[in-house]
């Protein structure tokens, strides 16, 4: 499915820009839950987080399709919610 979106890491957030809405997720929550649910699917993105002594999936090592698939599944099946939602003006 073709999605007109950008997914990127900025500071301690994971941000999703869609045509009419901007979603902001807590990066640590998403990375930790992504590892918990999808650990064996994205081995090239595994990282050890020394701050919390835990494994994460680092979104910097994922392509757009992988980022989208993980966020889709975390949002719809595991109820991870955006910490901030910004409604954009219709141009």
Topology summary:
Layout: E1 6-10, E2 13-17, E3 21-26, H1 27-38, E4 46-49, E5 54-57, H2 64-76, E6 84-87
Antiparallel strand pairs: 1-2, 2-3, 3-6, 4-5
What pattern of helices and strands is seen along the backbone? EEEHEEHE
Unreliable residue stretches: none
Extended strand count: 6
Helix percentage: 25-40%
Give the strand content. 25-35%
User: How many alpha or pi helices?
Assistant: 2
Identify the quaternary structure here: single chain
Gross morphology is globular
Largest sheet: 4 strands, antiparallel
Write up this protein.
Helices cover 27% and strands 31% of the residues. The protein has a 4-stranded antiparallel beta sheet. It has a two-stranded antiparallel sheet with strand order 4-5. The model has no long low-confidence stretch (mean pLDDT 84). It has 2 helices and 6 strands. It is α+β, with helices and mostly antiparallel strands.
């Amino acid at each position: 499915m073709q999605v007109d979106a950008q997914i990127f890491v900025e500071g301690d957030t994971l941000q999703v820009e869609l045509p009419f809405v901007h979603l902001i997720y807590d990066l640590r929550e998403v990375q930790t839950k992504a590892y918990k649910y999808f650990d064996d699917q994205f081995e090239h993105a595994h990282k050890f987080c020394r701050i919390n002594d835990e494994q994460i999936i680092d979104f910097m090592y994922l392509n757009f399709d992988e980022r989208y698939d993980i966020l889709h599944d975390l949002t719809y099946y595991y109820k991870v919610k955006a910490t901030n939602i910004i409604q954009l003006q219709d141009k």
